[in-house]
Amino acid sequence: MTMLDSFAALLMGLAGAGHCIMMCGGIAGAFGQSISTATLLVYNLGRITSYCIAGALVGYAASVLTLLMPDVLLILRFVAGLLLILLGLYLTGWWMVLRRLERLGTPFWRSLQPFAQRFRQSQQLPSIFGAGMLWGWLPCGLVYSALSWAALSGSASQGVWLMLMFGLGTLPAMFALGWFSKAIQSVLKSQGFRQAMGIIMIFYGVWVIQIALRQMSLFS
């Protein structure tokens, strides 16, 4: 894993601010208006914990594949760059292909959603943390793209680190609903902001693919 991978994971979280607000805004907004900042933090820590668990799983799976196929990390870097481009197209609204990935996780999410809502109604911090953990499994193209970088790490521990970076990148958007004005929220949700962030993701993805192709040529 390189600093590039950590930066990519953090950048994905930051760039998806508008997407996060639209996907999870109702929950975070309700928390920000009705409960303390500490409780909102606990909820988001639960959400990020689930991201880290998912990162550990895909990182470990990638480590097993690496033992069987030594060049698999080069392939994963290419795939990660491709998913970064698709994420950019998704954020801009130019091509919503990642919604197909989100649909794959919908049946699993439907089984979790009632429990998440039940936990959220409680004022106890352990229940709020549990609600955040369950909501972390909400089908989301942004999360799936970040998980591609966790797989690229090639280990469970590094997968946790990258998803932690991604989760930290999403925090400003989630706390914006409780702390920032509606004007700032409107900017984060605006099509212009989403397109600007999406274009950055596209260029970054192209750059990552070029690096992957260059590395592949060196080992061929």
TrEMBL record:
<feature type="transmembrane region" description="Helical">
    <location>
        <begin position="75"/>
        <end position="97"/>
    </location>
</feature>
<dbReference type="Pfam" id="PF13386">
    <property type="entry name" value="DsbD_2"/>
</dbReference>
<feature type="transmembrane region" description="Helical">
    <location>
        <begin position="159"/>
        <end position="180"/>
    </location>
</feature>
<feature type="transmembrane region" description="Helical">
    <location>
        <begin position="128"/>
        <end position="147"/>
    </location>
</feature>
<keyword id="KW-0812">Transmembrane</keyword>
<feature type="transmembrane region" description="Helical">
    <location>
        <begin position="48"/>
        <end position="68"/>
    </location>
</feature>
<feature type="transmembrane region" description="Helical">
    <location>
        <begin position="192"/>
        <end position="213"/>
    </location>
</feature>
<protein>
    <submittedName>
        <fullName>Sulfite exporter TauE/SafE family protein</fullName>
    </submittedName>
</protein>
<keyword id="KW-1133">Transmembrane helix</keyword>
<feature type="domain" description="Urease accessory protein UreH-like transmembrane">
    <location>
        <begin position="8"/>
        <end position="207"/>
    </location>
</feature>
<dbReference type="InterPro" id="IPR039447">
    <property type="entry name" value="UreH-like_TM_dom"/>
</dbReference>
<keyword id="KW-0472">Membrane</keyword>
